[in-house]
C-alpha cells in the first residue's frame, strides 16, 4: 500500500510538470541566457495535485514539480549554449561521458534564487547556474584546456598600426572617458600609446553570435586572441569576454580607458569578430604594454 501511495505521488508530480511545461516555456524571460552577466536563469512552475491530503502536502508537491520543471528548462538551455563557433554543449555531452556527468550535476545543483507560492495554489522556483567560475560552472564542465599556452602573435610588420580616434558622439549616445588615465610613455623600441585598460570590439549591425570561447581575427585570417593564448584556469574562472548591447556597460570589464575598435566583418558562423590588420596590430602592440588580453578584459558590443 505504501509503495502504491508513493507511485501515486510520483505520477501526480509528473502530471503537474506536464501541465505546466508549455506555460513555463512561454513564461520564461527572453534573457534566460544572459551573456553579459554570464548566467542562465529560469523559473520553474508547479501545480498542486488534486489528490493531496492537505494544504501542506499540496504545497510541497507543487514545489517539487516546480523544481523538476526548472531542471528541465535549464537542461534544454544549457545543451544549446555555443561553446565555440562549431560546437554546442550538447555536442560535447554526446562525445564525452565525463562532460555529460558534469553538466548533469551542474543542472541538479542549480542555485535557487527565489521561490514563492502562487495565489492559485501553485509554486514558482527561480533557479540559476553560472557559465563561468572556479567551481559549479558550465565552463568547468566543457571548456577545453590546451596542453600548451600559445604566445600572442606578432603584429604584421608590413602594415602600420592604426591610430585610435574614438568618437563617442559618432558611434554611441553615451560617453566613455578615454582620458581617465593619461597615456603612459611609449615602451622602449615600440610605438605603443600605453595606458589602455581593456579592449572593446564594436560589432553592432553585423549579427554577432555569442560563444563561450570566442576568437578575434585580423583581416588576413590570423587569430590574434583565443583560448589557446590564455591561462585555462583563468578562462574557466572569468570567461574570455562579455557581450553587451550598451557600450557604457563595457567599462565594467574593459576598465575606464578601453581601446575601442570596430569589427570589419565576422567569421565562423558569425561568431568571431574580424579586425582590420591595422587595428589588430594596434591591439597586439598595446597588449604587450598593458596585458589586457591576458586578463581577458575584452568586451564585444552586439
Question: Could you please describe the fold and organization of this structure?
Answer:
The model is unreliable at 1-31 and 167-189 (pLDDT under 50). Helices cover 34% and strands 18% of the residues. β10 and β11 (272-275) form a beta hairpin. α1 crosses α2 (55-79) and α2 (55-79) packs antiparallel against α4 (97-108). The protein has helices at residues 2-27, 55-79, 89-95, 97-108, 138-142, 168-171, 232-238, 251-254, 277-290, and strands at 33-34, 39-46, 111-117, 123-130, 198-202, 216-218, 223-225, 242-244, 258-262, 265-267, 272-275, 298-301. By secondary structure, the protein is of the alpha/beta class. The protein folds into 2 domains: 2-142, no CATH class; 168-301, no CATH class. The strands form 3 sheets. The protein has a 4-stranded antiparallel beta sheet with strand order 1-2-4-3.
Shape: elongated
Uncertain spans, ≥5 residues at pLDDT below 50?
Answer: 1-31, 167-189
Quote the beta fraction.
Answer: 15-25%
Q: What value does the average pLDDT take?
A: 85
- Please describe the biggest sheet, giving its number of strands, its sense, and whether it closes into a barrel: 4 strands, antiparallel
Helix coverage percent? 25-40%
- Rg, Å, rounded: 24 Å
Please tally the β strands and state the result: 12
**What's the N-to-C terminus distance?**
59 Å
Helix and strand element order: HEEHHHEEHHEEEHEHEEEHE
DSSP helical segment count: 9
Helix vs. strand class: alpha/beta
The tally of domains stands at: 2
Please give the order of strands in the largest beta sheet.
1-2-4-3
Amino acid at each position: 500500500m505504501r509503495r502504491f501511495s508513493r507511485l501515486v505521488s510520483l505520477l501526480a508530480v509528473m502530471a503537474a510538470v506536464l501541465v505546466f511545461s508549455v506555460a513555463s516555456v512561454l513564461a520564461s524571460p527572453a534573457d534566460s541566457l544572459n551573456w553579459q552577466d554570464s548566467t542562465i536563469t529560469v523559473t520553474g512552475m508547479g501545480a498542486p495535485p488534486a489528490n493531496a491530503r492537505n494544504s501542506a502536502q499540496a504545497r510541497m508537491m507543487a514545489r517539487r514539480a516546480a523544481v523538476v520543471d526548472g531542471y528541465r528548462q535549464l537542461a534544454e538551455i544549457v545543451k544549446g549554449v555555443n561553446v565555440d563557433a562549431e560546437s554546442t554543449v550538447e555536442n560535447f555531452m554526446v562525445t564525452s561521458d565525463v562532460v555529460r556527468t558534469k553538466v548533469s550535476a551542474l543542472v541538479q545543483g542549480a542555485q535557487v534564487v527565489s521561490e514563492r507560492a502562487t495565489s492559485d495554489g501553485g509554486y514558482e522556483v527561480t533557479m540559476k547556474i553560472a557559465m563561468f567560475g572556479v567551481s559549479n560552472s558550465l565552463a568547468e564542465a566543457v571548456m577545453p584546456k590546451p596542453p600548451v599556452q600559445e604566445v600572442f602573435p606578432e603584429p604584421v610588420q608590413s602594415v602600420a598600426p592604426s591610430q585610435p580616434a574614438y568618437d563617442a558622439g559618432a558611434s554611441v549616445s553615451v560617453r566613455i572617458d578615454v582620458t581617465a588615465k593619461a597615456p603612459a610613455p611609449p615602451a622602449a623600441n615600440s610605438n605603443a600609446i600605453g595606458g589602455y585598460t581593456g579592449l572593446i570590439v564594436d560589432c553592432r549591425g553585423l549579427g554577432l553570435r555569442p560563444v563561450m570561447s570566442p576568437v578575434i581575427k585580423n583581416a588576413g585570417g590570423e587569430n590574434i586572441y583565443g583560448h589557446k593564448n590564455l591561462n585555462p584556469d583563468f578562462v574557466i574562472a572569468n570567461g574570455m569576454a562579455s557581450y553587451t548591447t550598451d557600450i557604457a556597460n563595457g567599462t565594467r570589464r574593459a576598465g575606464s580607458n578601453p581601446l575601442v575598435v570596430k569589427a570589419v566583418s565576422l567569421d565562423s558562423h558569425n561568431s568571431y569578430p574580424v579586425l582590420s590588420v591595422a587595428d589588430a596590430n594596434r591591439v597586439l602592440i598595446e597588449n604587450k604594454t598593458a596585458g589586457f588580453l591576458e586578463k581577458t578584459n575584452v568586451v564585444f558590443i552586439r
